[in-house]
Design goal:
single chain; alpha/beta; 2-enoyl-CoA Hydratase, Chain A, domain 1; six-stranded mixed β-sheet; 10 strands
Length: 254
């Protein structure tokens, strides 16, 4: 996926720019987003970041599921999971405030990326979901972070039943902090980021670190181990194969 970075007046906008693929997250996406954030943190002029997706249909439809089949062996699967977690951590732990501007689908990794951001603004067209169980997986970061954002039961509903929530529901359960008309999304996100950029940067960075003080990086190792095991399971192999073949999966179960 291409990432497009534009800066103005202390606000950087990172756009996931693969609209034809609903901004799906391939393997190159994860280090690319980390690198983009690191460059903005080091440039001395950026004070806030907006993350969004190109096109009208999706923020991001999530990971490139067909690409999962290319991960051969336990070591490759484990490293992929660690790479994803490093990127979510980079967003959470960035000294810059990060605003997600969500239009259309935010599914799987797209929903998880929104969870990692500090504030989420959604267009009325936004739809959030964590459908990984349908292909024999779980959202490794989402199951860690969503309970503190939307509660344990809503997390289970979304992660186990694949429940999708619209913008108004997402606002009600705390996944989203503001809903605006789709035509106003970009301006609303930049305006909010601009207010953050106008604040004292050290105060914002310190406040973010304090608010996030309960975030435990040790959780990531547990999730990575679990997801690596799932990636190597027969159910995941069947789920990924069924997805690429566009048919219902036939899971064996425990």
């Amino acid at each position: 996926m291409n990432l497009r970075v534009e800066t103005a007046d202390g606000v950087a906008t990172i756009t996931m720019d693969a609209p034809a693929k609903l901004n799906a997250m391939g393997r190159a996406f994860w280090p690319a987003l980390r690198d983009a954030l690191a460059a903005l943190e080091a440039d001395g002029s950026t004070r806030a970041v907006v993350v969004t997706g190109a096109g009208e249909r999706a923020f991001s439809a999530g990971g490139d599921i067909a690409g999962f089949a290319e991960l051969e062996g336990t070591a490759a699967k484990r490293e992929f999971q660690r790479d994803c977690m490093r990127t979510f951590a980079a967003v959470e732990e960035s000294p810059l405030p990060v605003v997600a501007a969500v239009r259309g689908y935010a599914l799987g990794g797209g929903c998880e990326l929104a969870l990692a951001c500090d504030v989420v603004i959604a267009a009325e067209t936004a739809v959030f979901g964590m459908p990984e169980a349908a292909v024999g997986l779980v959202p490794g970061f989402g199951v860690l972070r969503a309970p503190s954002v939307i509660g344990r039961q809503w997390t289970k509903l979304m992660a186990f039943a694949g429940e999708r929530v619209d913008a108004d529901t997402a606002l009600r359960i705390g996944l989203v902090q503001k809903v605006v008309p789709a035509a106003e999304l970009a301006a609303a996100a930049r305006a909010l980021a601009g207010r953050m950029a106008a604040a004292a940067p050290l105060a914002v960075a310190t406040g973010k670190a304090l608010v996030n003080r309960g975030v435990d990086r040790g959780e990531y190792d547990h999730s990575t181990a679990a997801l690596t095991a799932l990636h190597g399971s027969a159910d995941a192999a069947e789920g990924i194969r069924a997805f690429t073949e566009k048919r219902p999966p036939r899971f064996r179960g425990c």
